[in-house]
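In the previous lecture we treated proteins in isolation. Real proteins rarely work alone, and many bind small molecules. This record shows how such a complex is specified: first the sequence, then the SMILES for flavin-adenine dinucleotide.
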Amino acid sequence: MQLVWFRQDLRLVDHPALHAAVQQARAQGEAVEAVFVISRAQWRHHHMASVRERFLLERLNVLGAELARRGIRLHLVEAPWFAEVPAALAALVRERGARALHAMSAIEIDERRRDEAVSAHLSVPCRFVPGCCVLPPGRVLTGKGEPFKVFTPFSRAWLREIAAHGYSLYRAPEPMGAPLGWQPLSLPARSAHETRTLRDWPVHEGAAEARLREFIDDAVLEYGARRDLPAEPGTSRLSAYLAAGILSPRQCLAALHSRLGTLPLTRDEPGFAWLNELIWREFYRHLLALEPRLSMNQPFQLHTRALAWRHDEQAFAAWCEGRTGYPIVDAAMRCLKQTGWMHNRLRMIVASFLTKDLHLSWQRGEAYFMSQLIDGDLAANNGGWQWAAGTGADAAPYFRVFNPTTQGQKFDPQGDFIRRWVEELADVPATCIHTPHDGWRHKGREAYPSPMVDHAVARLQAIAMFRQLPTGGDEA
Ligand SMILES: Cc1cc2nc3c(=O)[nH]c(=O)nc-3n(C[C@H](O)[C@H](O)[C@H](O)COP(=O)(O)OP(=O)(O)OC[C@H]3O[C@@H](n4cnc5c(N)ncnc54)[C@H](O)[C@@H]3O)c2cc1C
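The predicted 3D structure, ligand included, written as tokens:
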């Protein structure tokens, strides 16, 4: 029997490890079985949001049924910590008589160490194959064979590679035998928060593909113009599916390709703006795989370790709860807490606010995001936070600090997004919605907090904090 270990790749299409197991099993006249290891203690240690955990477990129930229909049994194994995974898998391998283990390679350091321990512990071969990116980490390197530290040259090299070699994806496997029964994992009733959040993220068979198709058919060509407006449904909302591997990035490429008849490989082609975001995803994944310190709370630019971030629990709580007195920041943070998701423009605004206006460390923001997001993904989250804080690869320059008021005016001009999430401001007209404390007279005024910092002052302090750093030279 060939055993496939599912991890952050809860799909049947474009699954290289499943494909390899099926090929080998067919060649040797064997069966295929599958396993998923539930590591709740480790997930909590990694700050995984409870809604994300629920999303994964509900998806597993669907995946188990899909596999069973193809004659592949999915085993669910509990190993609370990664350290317990080798023994748990060894027991299953022994019990089921597996002759090889197949999985997709991980990029995060704890996951990689777990996989090394599994390889060392098991008595059968463990075959790890790439599959979480379109191009695997290590394939897009500088002329000197080093990882790119700047996005634009990375994206040029990535596009050259695709233009030269194309890409291909694996179909879902044909049935391996008669359909099997499937005993789903028994889950407690959803909490009210889970019900609200998961409504936006169905996991039934075909749900992610349907959303991808709808976005590609109806919205991808306007993505460039609408992607920064949080009040509009201008982005794909595929992130939770991509983060859990319910959808592969190559499926996204293929959908774009088939809609346009070609892949948009240059900036001015229709559809390129969206492809470019998928390349950002690859950039951060390649970096995380090649720079283990990014998985360990360390900044990419090492000299920024000396930054004197403040410790202020009250300020942090006000940011988390959306009580900063800056309407766009507060709307975004309340939306995150209630839905487990936040628009990209808003992620940039609130991350800048935490680090450059409140001078609190990006690591705290990164962990809080992870604890709330249904699409929590170490590479993208770490990349986004370090970009905003000015500590990352190709980060925003330290002297360019987002102004939360003008960002709101520019990207939520009528205040529609703010009114949706900040009920104290529900009646405020567009003219005052971004500066409700300057001249707006209304009974609700007292209920909405005053700005907790003066942005102009905080901005100068942030710049001074960076200027005091001993200069870099250690970005490698
Ligand atoms: C501070 C911060 C934290 C973030 N944390 C996460 C996270 O935990 N998980 C996550 O998936 N994304 C994260 N992002 C990236 C981005 O905000 C989300 O991927 C995006 O908002 C998801 O919405 P969408 O699916 O509609 O994306 P679209 O705009 O439709 O983009 C398509 C896909 O491309 C990928 N993508 C888009 N933008 C980025 C980006 N800047 N970096 C990496 N990948 C990108 C995502 O997989 C996304 O689903 C973060 C960004 C910032 C600034």
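Summary for your notes: The chain has a mean pLDDT of 95. The longest strand covers residues 32-38.
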